[in-house]
Amino acid sequence: MTLPFIDLQAQRLRLGGKIEAAVQEAVVGGAWVMGPQVRQFEADLAAFGQAKHALGCANGTDALALPLMAWGVGRGDAVFVPSFTFAATAEVVPWFDAEPVFIDVDATTYNMDPAHLEAAIEATLKEGRLKPRVVIAVDLFGQPADYPAIKAICDKHGLKLISDSAQGFGCTINGEHPLKWADITTTSFFPAKPLGCYGDGGAVLTNDDDLAQLIDSIRVHGKAVAIDLKDKAFDHDPKYLNMRIGLNSRLDTIQAAVLIEKL
Length: 263
Ligand SMILES: *Cc1c(COP(=O)(O)O)cnc(C)c1O
Prior knowledge:
The protein is α/β, with parallel strands linked by helices. 38% of the residues lie in helices and 15% in strands. The chain is globular and about 60 Å long. It has a single domain, classed as Type I PLP-dependent aspartate aminotransferase-like (Major domain) (Aspartate Aminotransferase, domain 2, 3-Layer(aba) Sandwich), CATH 3.40.640.10. The two termini are 31 Å apart. The longest helix is centred in the middle third of the chain and has 14 residues, at 114-127. Helix 5 links the parallel strand 2 and strand 3. The structure holds pyridoxal-5'-phosphate (PLP). The site of pyridoxal-5'-phosphate has 15 residues, from helix 4 and helix 5.
């Protein structure tokens, strides 16, 4: 008898026809891009993740790129990433001409080793070629990184902290989600992840109002959001005002319908 390493059909069968019915409803509803199911899922996800804001996006890789873009990470910046993770964690850094600096992982958890993070930041500062900007900690095998220690190091050096929770979404430390320490949590809804959809999808969670608005703008081609329109009057619909360089990175309505049932 062979047992599959990952059996995605088992969950589909267990949840019965509820998911298929939700997909059917999304198809019939016709709001296939940014439909009501996306807003509903974002509200459900924020509540689950103890976050003020949750925003869907196209995949877990874009979820990492969105905050880097919002923070203006670029040439000459160092982004510290674990040396053992899925490739995407480091892959997004050179998208913006920044450089990943690889941090050893702890031998028992396989997550970022805070002692080596501290040493690598010091070495980067000493070398003087790159400016430390961001740390991306990863929650592997459902296990959170050592956020209390990593956050203290980020605060000491004025660095932003991303928790890449694609392989551990829902993990907690003493009941607290990684967002208690991180500026933003990112996740992937690739089918084999802890919370997966029926294709590609991703999300970010944050308590930072301005960051949430910037990411809402960037995921839709840099569209104008409230912070852009403040104290301004237009004699036309500002829908097609594009305020910054963005992406097209939305979560599909059909995928949101699947995720509402699975969450
Ligand atoms: C899967 C994964 C990603 C990327 O997610 P995609 O949805 O496949 O783009 C990023 N980081 C980690 C740790 C992952 O496991």
